[in-house]
Amino acid sequence: MTQEKLYEIIKRPIISEKSTALAEIANRAVFQVALAATKNEIRDAVEQLFKVDVKAVKTMIVHGKNKRSGRFEYKRSNWKKAIVTLADGQRIDLLQVKQ
Q1: CA 3/CA 46 separation, integer angstroms
Q2: What are the extents of the domains in the chain?
Q3: Cα 63–chain centre separation
Q4: Whole-angstrom distance between the N-terminal and C-terminal Cα of the chain?
Q5: pLDDT tens-digit map of 3-18
Q6: CATH code for the structural domain at 3-90
Q7: Would the pTM of this model clear 0.90, i.e. be above it?
Q8: Which letter does DSSP use for residue 94 in this model?
């Protein structure tokens, strides 16, 4: 796959308190991915971008929230989240906390 295609599949890492705890305790990384991306495409993209071995991929659709702006109401877009379990001894440097 080309570099552009990889970045269309993996949009951004999710950095939150929960995802940081998953990275430290369970050796997992959390990413926002394309809605049409499959688990195999996500696995290949993470392995090629970060040079790690992926053990498992779990995906979920996060439904957009209803929001208000004055008297107008709108809905945010749905998006897909992937939780990637890395093989033992593998790390992704972007997600590591510096002390």
Answers
A1: 12
A2: 3-90
A3: 15
A4: 35
A5: 889 999 999 999 999 9
A6: 3.30.70.330
A7: no
A8: G
